[in-house]
Design goal:
two-stranded parallel ribbon, alpha/beta, 19% strand, 36% helix
Length: 346
C-alpha cells in the first residue's frame, strides 16, 4: 500500500496516469487531502465510487498515532508519535509572534552521537518515510484545529531527532510537499533544514534550487573541542564544513544560520567567542545561541544567563549578528529525545 501523504504532486500525476486516469486526478486528491482535510477516500465525493474502491485497494491515507501528549504553560505542544511498526518519534509545536513553528524529526533515533544530545542515546533505528514526516505536520495541525482558532503550522524547522542529510532524498520530498501550494502550502523561506555538518549533503542541497534556509549545528569554534562534543567532526572537520558553507552561499545565494548550544565551562568562554568570530565572521551568517536544556541523561550544565549574554554581546560587538533562542516547554521534556527516552526507560 502506498501512503499518498508521501507522494509529491508530480509523482502522483504519474501514478494516476498509470491507473488510466487524467493527470488532474492528482490535483483533485491533493485538494481533498490538504485543503479539505479528508481522512478517507470515501469522503472524496466528486471521485467516482469505482475509482474510490481502486484507491482503497492500492493506497492509504494514514498518519501517525499520538502516543503521548505534553502541553507546556507557554502553549508549546510536544507529541510522541507512534508509527505503524511501533517506532516512536517526537515532534513539537512552538508558538512565536510570527507563527506556529513545527520542529520535525527526520529519523527514528540518530547515529551522529553528539555527547550533549538525548536524541542519539539509543542510536539510529531507521529513516522516517516521507509520509511519516508529513504526518508529523498533520498531527500538529490537528492539535491546532481542535483549538478552533483557524491556525495551522506556518513554519518548519528540521531540528528534531535525526540528521536530515542522513535521510536526504526523503527530506527533499518532504520539503517539496510542504512547500507545494496545493500541498501544505508553507513558504520556502519558512522552512529550515539543520545539519550537524554532513559536507556532501550541504553541497548537494546548494544545488536543489530551493529558497529554504540552512542551519549548521556548530556548537564549538575549533576542531579539538568539536571532536569531543560531536563525533561527526572526525569525518567532516570544521575546515571542510566552512568550505561547503561558502560553496552553498555562492550557489544558493542564501545566508546561513549557525546554531551554538552553550554548555557551562565547555564552550561558553569569551575565548570561544573570539574563535567563533574568526571562524564564521566573514560569511555574514547569523549565530543562534541556544541555552542548554539540562537532562539527567547527559552530564552537562547550562551556562549561567550572565555568560550567555556576555557571549552574545561579544559576537554582536565584533560584527556577527547573534540572537539568543527563546526557550519553549521548560516545564515539560523540552530537549530533543527526552520524552521518548523517558517513555522507553519506563
Amino acid at each position: 500500500m502506498i501512503n499518498l501523504y508521501g507522494v509529491e504532486l508530480h509523482k502522483l500525476e504519474a501514478l494516476m496516469e498509470a491507473e488510466g486516469q487524467k493527470k488532474y486526478r492528482a490535483t483533485q486528491l491533493y485538494t481533498w487531502m490538504y485543503e479539505k482535510k479528508a481522512q478517507s477516500f470515501d469522503q472524496m465525493t466528486d471521485i467516482s465510487l469505482s475509482f474510490r474502491e481502486t484507491l482503497k485497494e492500492k493506497y492509504t491515507l494514514e498518519i501517525p498515532k499520538v502516543h503521548t501528549r505534553q502541553v507546556s504553560t507557554d502553549g508549546t505542544i510536544k507529541l510522541l508519535l507512534e508509527m505503524n511498526d511501533g517506532s516512536k518519534v517526537e515532534t513539537v509545536l512552538m508558538r512565536y509572534n510570527y507563527g506556529n513553528v513545527a520542529c520535525v524529526s527526520s529519523q527514528v533515533g540518530c547515529e551522529m552521537g553528539c555527547s550533549f544530545c538525548a536524541s542519539g542515546l539509543t542510536g539510529k533505528k531507521r529513516n522516517l518515510e516521507v509520509s511519516e514526516m508529513v504526518g508529523e505536520i498533520l498531527c500538529l495541525n490537528n492539535e491546532l484545529r481542535e483549538e478552533g482558532n483557524g491556525e495551522r503550522v506556518s513554519h518548519i524547522v528540521l531540528m528534531g531527532t535525526g540528521e536530515p542529510f542522513d535521510n536526504y532524498d526523503n527530506v527533499m520530498d518532504f520539503i517539496r510537499i510542504c512547500n507545494n501550494q496545493k500541498g501544505l502550502s508553507i513558504g520556502a523561506r519558512h522552512i529550515t533544514v539543520s545539519t550537524c555538518g554532513i559536507v556532501p549533503g550541504i553541497k548537494k542541497y546548494a544545488r536543489e534550487g530551493l529558497q529554504t534556509n540552512l542551519a549548521i549545528s556548530l556548537h564549538a569554534p575549533n576542531d579539538e573541542l568539536r571532536n569531543s562534543l560531536m563525533k561527526i567532526n572526525h569525518t567532516f572537520p570544521l575546515s571542510s564544513i566552512m568550505e561547503a558553507v561558502r560553496e552553498y552561499i555562492s550557489i544558493a545565494g542564501r545566508r546561513v544560520t549557525y546554531e551554538y548550544v552553550l554548555i557551562q565551562d565547555v564552550n561558553d568562554s569569551l575565548g570561544c567567542a573570539k574563535e567563533l568570530v574568526d571562524l564564521v565572521g566573514d560569511t555574514e551568517g547569523y549565530v543562534n545561541l541556544i541555552p542548554y536544556n539540562e537532562t539527567n541523561l547527559c552530564n552537562y550544565k547550562r551556562s549561567p544567563q550572565s555568560r550567555v549574554y556576555a557571549f552574545a554581546d561579544y559576537l554582536n560587538e565584533h560584527g556577527v549578528n547573534t540572537t539568543i533562542r527563546k526557550e519553549f516547554g521548560s516545564d515539560i521534556d523540552a530537549a530533543c529525545g527526552q520524552l521518548k527516552a523517558k517513555i522507553e526507560t519506563k
